[in-house]
Amino acid sequence: MRISATLYLTDTTIGPAPLARELEGRGFDGLYVPEHTHIPVPAETPYPGGELPPECARMLSPFVALAQAAAVTERITLGTNIALVAQHDPIDLAKQVATLDHLSGGRVTLGIGYGWNREEAEDHGVPWPRRRDLVRDRMALMRALWSDQPTLYEGEFGSVRPSEAYPKPLRAPRKRLAKGPLYGPRTLIGGAAGPGLFAHIAEYADGWMPIGGSGLRAALPVLRTAWADAGREPDDLYVALTGVVPDAGKLAHYAELGVDEVIVQLPPAGDAEVRAALDAAQRHVNP
């Protein structure tokens, strides 16, 4: 089971380059960073975890931060947890993701989600009740640009002409019955367990990125059934838990359930505090 790390990277925390070097040097498998463009005030949408962390308003652009991390590492995965796809122009986002994947040698994992902050999304022109459909549409358009031939896409929310678009993500296309190959980097969808989410994972993603492991024993068989019913290969399903505070028993439990990757939560802090947290977490990487 892979062990990676995440934190809210901001203008006041450790920087992406020194953090990435620390992770790679200590044997961690990846660095994942979240995304918020801004937090409208006063905050009207309640934060899912209780009190809104002040770091949400200070987050670095994940793709700029991960590009800096890519430049100083050779091995670790570079991922988002999660990217707010509905808030991006999909043609531009497809270019950013493919460029990062190209420059890093194919190390990108695209964790995506639907978002929780209605005001932030609406400032981007997102129709909040349709955000899940919008993300699905955006991803289909991006896959058309990532495909190996110029491909027309006409969707409900956007379209693109058959186009030459390079660079291409380096991950090989994955098989899907009836819908053809799945182009692009490994894509994981975040969100709470449920039939709608699992149907979308099986349709256009490579796996699931839930926060923590609550309810995982009951949820994973349901996801695996949805995956199989969609004609996907069982071994292709990837599950990465993010925001985990690790201990040996918890990690053994996740491994027994077939989890592929655990993403350890680090504090949104400066160099010294983050390195101390890495010291504590490293025993799980090199037991």
TrEMBL record:
<dbReference type="Pfam" id="PF00296">
    <property type="entry name" value="Bac_luciferase"/>
</dbReference>
<dbReference type="InterPro" id="IPR051260">
    <property type="entry name" value="Diverse_substr_monoxygenases"/>
</dbReference>
<dbReference type="InterPro" id="IPR011251">
    <property type="entry name" value="Luciferase-like_dom"/>
</dbReference>
<dbReference type="GO" id="GO:0016491">
    <property type="term" value="F:oxidoreductase activity"/>
</dbReference>
<protein>
    <submittedName>
        <fullName>TIGR03619 family F420-dependent LLM class oxidoreductase</fullName>
        <ecNumber>1.-.-.-</ecNumber>
    </submittedName>
</protein>
<keyword id="KW-0560">Oxidoreductase</keyword>
<dbReference type="InterPro" id="IPR036661">
    <property type="entry name" value="Luciferase-like_sf"/>
</dbReference>
<dbReference type="InterPro" id="IPR019921">
    <property type="entry name" value="Lucif-like_OxRdtase_Rv2161c"/>
</dbReference>
<feature type="domain" description="Luciferase-like">
    <location>
        <begin position="19"/>
        <end position="245"/>
    </location>
</feature>
